[in-house]
Amino acid sequence: MKLVKFFRTISFSILIFVLSMGVATATCTADRCINKIERIYLHPNGFLNVRTDGNQSALNCTLRDGEYLTLETSHSLFREYLAMLLTAKSSDLVSVIRIVGGSPRCEIDYIMLQ
């Protein structure tokens, strides 16, 4: 009887873990996206364009060209953020990208990798 209860508890824990993983991906709210990186490219005008695999229309900003978050090359942490984005893309990791609310080009405020 104790063994059955133990397996039920373990099964429930695994189910909750798997479901929470699904919730944590491909989500955007007004101030952040929790997604995988779909595309990164450096624009000749001095900014990096980033597109995630989620629905970015929920963000409280204006997407560049209707689909991109931006990071200015003049940003003090540009190199560090670029390294994080490239790591996330090449390793297929989920990233949390926080934007500057109401920004005219969905400017990236900070990035976290999960």
What is shown here, in short?
The chain is α+β, with helices and mostly antiparallel strands and 114 residues long. The chain contains two helices and six strands; from the N terminus they run αββββαββ. The longest helix has 22 residues, at 2-23.
Description:
This protein has two helices and six strands. The protein is an alpha+beta fold. The chain has a single domain (26-113), classed as OB fold (Dihydrolipoamide Acetyltransferase, E2P). Strands 1, 2, 3, 4, 5 and 6 form a six-stranded antiparallel sheet that branches. Mean pLDDT is 84; it is low at 15-24.
- Strand-residue fraction? 25-35%
Chain-averaged pLDDT: 84
Q: How is the biggest beta sheet arranged?
A: 6 strands, antiparallel
User: How many domain modules?
Assistant: 1
Count of helical stretches: 2
Low-confidence stretches: 15-24
User: What's the total count of β strands?
Assistant: 6
The helix content is 25-40%
CATH class category: Mainly Beta
CATH architecture label: Beta Barrel
Task: Give the overall form.
Answer: globular
Distance between the termini: 38 Å
According to CATH, the fold-level topology is: OB fold (Dihydrolipoamide Acetyltransferase, E2P)
Instruction: Please state the CA-atom Rg, rounded to the nearest Å.
Output: 18 Å
Order of helices and strands: HEEEEHEE
Structural class determined from secondary elements: alpha+beta
